[in-house]
DNA sequence: CGATTTCTGATTTACGTACCTCAGAAGTCG
DNA sequence: CGACTTCTGAGGTACGTAAATCAGAAATCG
């Protein structure tokens, strides 16, 4: 049978109250007595029953998620995952509130963080914009004892406890290696695409991509990066333009969103071998394109895992327990036609 | 505030005992009354507090893990993950027992399953050997109301509730596509290696691999599969032999373990370009070989995820709740030098 | 040394649910 | 209609921990 606080009290020859004080680090226990209790805990192998403790505390974890009101598939999916988690959270004395803010709007994000601060939740998770004002607002939350976790896009130099997202430099490097090796000796230039170079994740991906291309595939000509603003129409236009200007275009790496346009442009392409294409985020469109061999590889971050990881970290932070580090590393999923889920 | 059973009782105008009878499906409630209670539950959005419920029930989940006493890195890692989970489990009223059985021994595995059956745990997880006797033993457990989950290697045709492992055919196909594309137009044959073709996962991997090679890279010559019994020395010998017999060997796909031997043989290889190499399972040896560019790609299954997934599924099964299906799909991790964790 | 403050221990209540007992109400049957 | 069964309500205890209250012990101070 698992030992309880009563067993500890009996074994240490003290009262329940004293055990409680030791367990919860409250004052009013002589060092000698404290040691007796700690010895008993050690001897009996006592571990606190979190369920009972939370029940007694009447604790409800309250977390706020701040998400950009962006309508691309990935963000829609992310929001859906937060909703799903909120529903499951009810069962486990956890309440998740969501705030939507305009995308790429520093002022709005800071305002949302300040609003969250006033509600005094146990933790806040948000998709960061990498700006000093945002960093300041996040650090203010941390000072208030509110745990802060960044989601999908990180905030450099801040004191946030965790970043629930992928290593975008590694993702870009991976894309570079795969594209370079898939191309082999096939001649022709490569087109890098981004949503915007103002966003940290896109910038980092292209950075990693560029580094690998320069280092491992130096002979390959890399065209200047084009920015499609994560917009399908604009992205499609850019691809059509590139195909026209470079009939021998050998590869495309799309680090941002708006891939529906890219795929449409590829389908409209006439004869000749199509370029090798690597994109990010598994959505309805990219999944279909991959299975129909219109593109070659999709790098993906699992929004569900990111949300669940953020919650686990916030919860662990709230009750000062440890997390399984390996479980919280968000992996770069690499999907080929062959391992589509 | 979250509604409690008391609120439901008040709202439905019945007593607490009646609400309890409805919630726990006990007899002694008229259909009319039952409906009133259910309406109140619906109206107030009541969700049972699992922590309090488990506390009241004094429930302790008991699970048994049956693991092969195999000393390769992957299995060592798997055992370590189970131990770690057991330790964390203490906190959450869950007890994990472990049984070690000789590897590849059907009789021993069946005996272990029968031993587990006698202990009447809530669930059993085990690394299956795909044999009729094992299937029968597993189904017997299921009939006793003990949830059964297969781990790493599946059991065909059984009634197990879940398989916590990767899709090995897809893994093999992925390896095929990567190897074929990495090779490009480079001439030379490819050597497939396995631990043993008697094991289902290895067989399936080679099956997927062979299918893709035949379909997408028909011109490529595939040598006959060699079996290294997951033994480094034997595997090394096979590779040396192949390198001698085929100086133009272009690629190696190792679907099993014992990759230390493979790596040693590659390092001993003289001049000339080394073959493109894809192996399974990220271990100390394969990680180092990958980062030193002795091999090109590692396909991996995350043992920690598999163990945690198995536990989540067993627990959900034990209290009749649902799991997040997407969370329980074990992914095929693809590691290049660039995205090593 | 007595008064005060600081520690320490014992006891009790509460958290939300499960489950038990018992009494009495409502319904069913002959 | 009475005897019977089936429902239902009231009330209690239990689970393991948290936290409050109060009383008594020890230490500190003037």
Structure description:
The structure is a homodimer of 341-residue chains. With 341 residues, chain A is an alpha/beta fold. The first copy, chain A, has helices at 5-12, 16-23, 31-44, 50-57, 73-90, 106-119, 132-143, 168-183, 200-216, 232-245, 259-268, 284-291, 303-318, 325-328, and strands at residues 61-68, 94-101, 123-126, 147-151, 162-164, 190-194, 226-227, 251-254, 276-280, 297-300, 333-335. Chain A starts with a helix and ends in a 6-residue tail after the last strand. The first copy, chain A, is elongated, with a radius of gyration of 25 Å. The model of chain A has no long low-confidence stretch (mean pLDDT 92). Chain A is built from 14 helices and eleven strands. The relative contact order of chain A is 0.10. Chain A folds into three domains: 5-48, lambda repressor-like DNA-binding domains (434 Repressor (Amino-terminal Domain)); 59-165 and 303-330, 3-Layer(aba) Sandwich (Rossmann fold); 168-300, Rossmann fold (3-Layer(aba) Sandwich). In chain A, helix 12 links the parallel strand 9 (276-280) and strand 10. At the A-B interface, helix 4, helix 5, helix 8 and helix 13 of A face helix 4, helix 5, helix 8 and helix 13 of B. Chain A binds a DNA duplex (30 and 30 nucleotides) through residues 2, 4-6, 14-18, 20-21, 23-24, 26-30, 33, 48-49, 51-58.
């Amino acid at each position: 049978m698992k030992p309880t606080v009563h067993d500890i009290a009996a074994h240490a020859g003290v009262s329940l109250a004293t055990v409680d004080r030791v367990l919860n680090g409250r004052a009013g226990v002589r060092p000698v007595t404290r040691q007796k209790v700690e010895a008993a805990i050690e001897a009996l192998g006592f571990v606190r029953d979190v369920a009972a403790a939370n029940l007694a505390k009447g604790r409800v974890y309250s977390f706020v998620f701040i998400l950009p009101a962006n309508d691309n598939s990935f963000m829609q999916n992310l929001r859906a995952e937060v909703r799903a988690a909120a529903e499951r959270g009810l069962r486990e004395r956890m309440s998740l509130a969501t705030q939507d803010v305009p995308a790429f709007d520093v002022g709005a994000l800071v305002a949302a963080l300040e609003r969250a601060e006033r509600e005094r939740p146990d933790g806040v998770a948000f998709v960061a914009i990498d700006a000093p004002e945002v960093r300041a607002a996040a650090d203010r939350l941390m000072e208030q004892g509110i745990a802060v976790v960044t989601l999908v896009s990180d905030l450099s130099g801040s004191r946030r406890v965790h970043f629930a997202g992928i290593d975008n430099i590694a993702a870009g490097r991976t894309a570079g290696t795969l594209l370079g090796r898939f191309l082999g000796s096939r001649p022709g230039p490569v087109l890098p695409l981004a949503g915007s170079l103002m966003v940290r994740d896109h910038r980092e991906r292209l950075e990693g991509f560029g580094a690998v291309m320069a280092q491992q595939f130096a002979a390959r000509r890399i065209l200047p990066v084009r920015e499609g603003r994560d917009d399908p129409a604009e992205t499609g236009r850019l691809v059509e333009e590139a195909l026209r200007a470079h009939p021998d275009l050998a590869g495309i790496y799309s680090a941002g969103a708006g891939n529906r346009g890219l795929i449409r442009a590829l389908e409209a392409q006439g004869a000749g071998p199509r370029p090798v294409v690597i994109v990010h985020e598994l959505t309805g469109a990219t999944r279909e394109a991959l299975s129909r061999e219109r593109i070659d590889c999709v790098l993906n971050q699992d929004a569900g895992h990111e949300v669940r990881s953020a919650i686990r970290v916030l919860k662990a932070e709230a009750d000062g327990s440890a997390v399984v580090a390996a479980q919280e590393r968000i992996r770069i999923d690499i999907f080929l036609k062959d391992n589509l889920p």
